Amino acid sequence: MLMIVVCSRMTSHNLGLWAKTWGMRFQPSKCNIITFARKKPDVKLAAYKGLLRPVLEYACCVWDPHQSYLQDKLESIQRRSARFISSEFSREPGSMTVILKDLDLPTLAERRKENRLILFSKGFFGKANIPMDRLRHPTRTTRGMHNLHFCQLYSRSNCYKFSFFPKTLKDWNNLPADLIDGLDGHLDPVHYLTNFIRA
């Protein structure tokens, strides 16, 4: 079944005429048509979370750009979406922060960090097939290290320095020690860790 997303009021008849004009072949009667009304921000928010944000976060554990201009491009899409969802187009300083907070939309950079940590935990506990055999625990521990601390991977090139393992190891090693201690003996440590990270 074909899913058509329409951002204005369009009937199936009009959609059929539009498809005929542009040489597209499908039967409008067999399509689901989603229309977004300005008076339904909850519908627009659900559409953003279900249709647009997954595209922005596709393979984000692997592709997590460190360049500020690439991060800004991604965040600008979410900011424009947030203004459309809330129908708030004020350009006053701080207005965007309020809109994102009201919609409970964390930055995409924060979500990419969360997704990397969750994937890493799945790999550590054997629920994801990622190469963990080359990672090493330090031979000497300090007071600032938790029980599952790993040796940091270093590189002279930014390409490797900001790749999945070096970047995620740094975030993993900075997790609270009491959180890591709470994983011992837990029936589902990945679920426990995920709930903490997503909170």
Shape, principal axes of CA atoms: elongated
Q: Which residues form runs of ≥5 with pLDDT under 50?
A: none
Sheet with the most strands? Answer: 2 strands, parallel
Strand order of the largest sheet: 1-2
In whole angstroms, how far apart are the ends?
A: 36 Å
Specify the structural class.
mainly alpha
Strand content: under 5%
Residue share in helix: 40-55%
Question: What Rg, in angstroms, do the CA atoms define?
Answer: 22 Å
Task: Supply the number of helical segments.
Answer: 9
Write down the overall mean pLDDT.
87
- Total number of strands: 2
Protein name: Endonuclease/reverse transcript
Detailed description of the structure:
The protein has helices at 12-21, 41-56, 68-86, 95-102, 108-124, 158-161, 164-173, 177-181, 189-198; strands at residues 3-6, 32-35. The protein is elongated, with a radius of gyration of 22 Å. The model has no long low-confidence stretch (mean pLDDT 87). A two-stranded parallel ribbon has the order 1-2. The chain is mainly alpha-helical and 199 residues long. The two termini are 36 Å apart.
